[in-house]
Amino acid sequence: MNQILLITDGGSNVGLSPVAAAAQAYEEGIVVNVAGVLDEGSLGEYGASEIAEIAKAGGGISRIVSTKQLSQTVQMMTRQTVVGTIRQAVNEELRQVFGVNSVESLPPPKRAEVVRVMEEMGETAPLKVALLIDASASMKPKLLAVEEAIRDLSLSLQARSGDSMAAVFHFPGEREDCTLDAPWTSSTERLGSLFGRLRMRGTTPTGPALMRVIAYFHESYGKIVSEDEHPASLLKRDDTDGMRSDYVV
After folding, report:
1. Would you call 115 helix, strand, or coil by DSSP?
2. For residue 31, what are the β-bridge partners?
3. Which of 12, 13, 97, 126 is 20 to 30 A from 111, alpha carbon to alpha carbon?
4. Which domain of life is it from (predicted)?
């Protein structure tokens, strides 16, 4: 399973629309989650709307949180996307094989068995998470919270029994729209040491940065999904199917 986890306070102002870029990611088998970060103040209506639209287009979840909530939220979003994607695939399989609409439609003994298998898959399925950090000037007061969130996410990934890989990008970069800070690694405990090199800058090229991360997935792994495969778009369904984009403040 492939994820981009964007941490930003919104307000993209350079280049391609981040909503269009997120849609491109989703079409290519990468779910885009977005954590919108407050700093004891207002994110702004435009920023909140953009964050929700990016996640919706990317088939993921959006959350708007204070800096104090960020660490817990980043872990939750990563895990919830995995669980939701598995649930979507299982429900589709049940529809095709047994003619039932969801796990909840099964008799209780069979439902318990399927839920157990889903939980096991959530811990063992291979997972790749590309963290994309907004390092524009407005994010400077929030950087310590972002650092803590990434360290805690690293611990969460290490605790999984399945293969977990993470990479870290920030934008804008010194000479380009986006910079790769850490290539794919399973040694995620090293990710928290990256922040001394970040230099906060004025612009917010969120769309081009997302496109750079999509390209990196392809450079690393080639074609991500076949033409008849598609990740779970759980935002476009109701609560019986899984996740939806919403806010936690």
Report:
1. helix
2. 3
3. 126
4. Bacteria
Using CA atoms, how far apart are residues 119 and 48, in angstroms rounded to an integer?
32
User: Could you tell me if residue 9 is inside a domain?
Assistant: yes
Domain assignment of residue 245, yes or no: no
Q: Which residues contact 156 (CB under 8 A, 6 or more apart)?
A: 75, 78, 79
Q: What is the extent of the structural domain holding 42?
A: 2-236
Question: Alpha carbon 79 to chain centroid distance?
Answer: 10
Strand 2-8: give its sheet, edge to edge.
Answer: 59-66, 31-38, 2-8, 127-134, 164-171, 179-185
Q: Is 37 among the domain residues?
A: yes
The model's pTM is 0.78
Measured over the CA atoms of residue 51, residue 56, residue 62 and residue 64, the dihedral's sign is positive
Q: Which letter, b or e, does each residue of 46-63 get, where b requires 16 or more Cβ atoms within 10 Å of its Cβ? A: ebbebbbbbbbbbbbbbb
We report the CATH number of the domain holding residue 116 as 3.40.50.410
